[in-house]
């Protein structure tokens, strides 16, 4: 039996369903396996066309928004002991059912709730290979493939689809799957309102008519087998004509082309300080804005580099005006601990989604969430018994889905939701667990990358410290540390000019060393070690302090866990305890290696006299 994750403890009373169709049948099947409890509340789930079959139909009709609920929206009305969940169709009903499952035992009194997703496409990408390995996967092997084919038993896939639907995910993408396998997978995800897309590499010449004909025929053949295919995710891409070729072939079927944006930068010479990988995506795609077909979504990484633990928001997300954009995040923790180290990313994602792309902080402000038409992330699941390797990493998957639905949701509240639904525990234990998780991203940042510096990781694994691991590579230079200072000059005045890709007043904020936020200072500026931060500390002392602090915070997390560990089932206790042991060792290596590196370069000791291994 699969780990039930956040569906482990939830229960409902008897529910009547006034609806028909595939997703209504899914709801009925869900209700048959949902744990029951007795209550006087009468619950009904119905389509708006059948709402008059319920006692609360006048209240429901009065609460319907003027422009309707849309395909995925729903409303919940409670008056006394009557409660109705209503939606226009199956997708909204399914999300309304899971809303009910999530909150029913916390509901009290009369209320009316109207829910609609903020972002239309909410997708997880899966880089599983047919062999059963997972690229950028840290939770075992593939749950979909083995030995070149899809697994014969898809019961675990069905359990996964159920988890995704419960948090509002409506799309998934797979790479390298054969058409019959795609059809089998699509059949399972369809039961939960989730569209399947295919990831491809497009390296053909789009100006060759034979290429256009081939893709038109191939896409037609796919839709014959999977008529509700969501689209194509293009991982390795050429130019705008390639995107438009695919988009035109997809258009008759309602399909979308997700064109992953990375920027086709050449190898960088580390000797050239003006060569800057961060510029590449903007430089390539801003001149193309408005030239893409309407069913193309430019899938932009949240930062200008590559999912580092701290980066500025990619300027492309705010500057595309005539092309639909989507943001790409990583639930799989490639550069944030790889599900070995605890790193709850919900606060970081909310910060990104709520980032004001205009910098105006007032009238005319437009957040990232306001601008995008899709939110996509590389999934963190595998065939590990608990889905995510580290049991507590399930919180990242949960938070991604919930923030994709509502980008303004409070990440700490989401932790309480997740913990209460995942574990049978008292409120005090839940509070301790949430405390451990809530600050873990900041803790990870403190003991790894200081002030916006990235890529101080082992090049092959991307786990563990290697301060100069990428510093002389063709991918760029990321810290330029020498005996006098550290950081990358990305200013217009003296550096690569990257700050100029942002609109005013953001460009000026980042350009000025004294107004640039401390947490991004070394991403935008090369400064001497004695430069004083807005916090009042020098850059070098900040590096020392945060690495000591980060390690101490991991020690505190471990101590908190030991106090509550016995309250969890043995499998959870053993899994989390082992991961914390590894994290403590990793944090120690980061602390000692980074601090020693900068002490040896600068010759300046720690102001507090703590041990640095010179």
Termini separation (Å)?
52 Å
Q: Quickly give the structural class.
A: alpha/beta
Q: Rg to the nearest angstrom?
A: 25 Å
Binned strand content: 5-15%
> Which outline best applies?
globular
Q: In oligomeric terms, what are we looking at?
A: single chain
For the largest sheet, list the strands in their spatial order: 8-11-12-13-14-15-16-17
Overall mean confidence score, pLDDT: 95
Low-confidence runs: none
Count, helices: 19
Query: How many strands in all?
Result: 19
The largest sheet, given as strand count, sense and whether it forms a barrel, is:
8 strands, parallel, barrel
The amount of helix comes to 25-40%
Keywords:
alpha/beta, globular, 614 residues
